[in-house]
Write a structure and sequence with these properties.
The protein has 239 residues and is of the alpha+beta class. The radius of gyration is 20 Å and the shape is globular.
Length: 239
């Protein structure tokens, strides 16, 4: 280590090897759903830390070498990538204070979690797991840039969607569509069907049991890797 160089505190922390999401975490989330209030959560917070938060952080750490291989431009951080359990209830009719799932969002280095770019999402809750990649809520400017890229680079875009691994993993592109071709493009544009999309993402659903296994790490990594050409195309389009 160079003289005077400080080691980030996060690098000094230890996260145990991921050997599957614990059944205790699923049980905790089920009970939280029935007791979604602050007194109950505060009484059982240690269970959350032990059976939900720490295993998710270990999973994120276990994903780091996989991302280094297929998407090194992404931030895969045990603290920053994990969503907090606290719900934002300011503008919601549902005032329950806690999420009853565990989730992580992987974004480009230097970007905040949210809708700023194209990234990867992982979600575990009692009964199901879902994960995938892309952009779920692009704003108007992002949509214009993505559509421009699709119109100007049709072969590259279609090649991504037709790749064997992409079709095997996701079947097709997901997302809501406009009824008509957006303004600025002719109705008979050769990419008209794709230009109607308002969202651009892919995802898979698995039963809860799959997350309980040690190989869940490689299963997740394979899905994320299959989504990477689309994720990267979208980010390049948005600049």
């Amino acid at each position: 280590m160079a003289k005077g160089k400080e080691i980030p505190l996060s690098d000094l922390e230890f996260f145990p090897p991921f050997d599957g999401f614990p059944r205790g975490g699923i049980s905790f989330m089920k009970r939280l759903k029935r007791n979604n209030n602050r007194p109950w959560f505060e009484k059982h917070k240690e269970e959350y830390e032990t059976f939900v938060k720490l295993p998710m952080q270990s999973l994120i750490v276990a994903l780091q070498p996989h991302f280094e291989r297929f998407a090194p431009e992404f931030d895969v951080h045990p603290k920053k990538s994990l969503f907090r359990i606290y719900r934002d209830i300011r503008f919601s009719k549902d005032k329950t204070p806690y999420k009853t799932h565990a989730a992580a969002h992987f974004v480009l280095r230097g970007k905040p979690k949210g809708v700023e770019g194209s990234g990867y999402y992982l979600h575990i809750e009692p009964g199901e797991v879902f994960l995938g990649g892309g952009i779920y809520m692009p704003d108007g400017d992002q949509l214009k840039k993505i559509r421009k890229a699709i119109a100007s680079q049709p072969d590259q875009f279609l090649t991504i969607l037709q790749q064997k691994e992409f079709r095997k993993t996701f079947k097709r592109l997901q997302g809501e569509k406009l009824q008509r071709v957006p303004q600025g493009y002719e109705p008979d544009h050769p990419m008209a069907g794709w230009l109607k999309y308002k969202q651009f993402f892919v995802w898979v659903e698995w039963p809860e049991a799959r997350s309980l296994k040690e190989k869940f790490v490689t299963d997740v990594a394979e899905v994320f890797e299959a989504a990477t050409p689309l994720v990267r195309f979208l980010n390049e389009a948005m600049g």
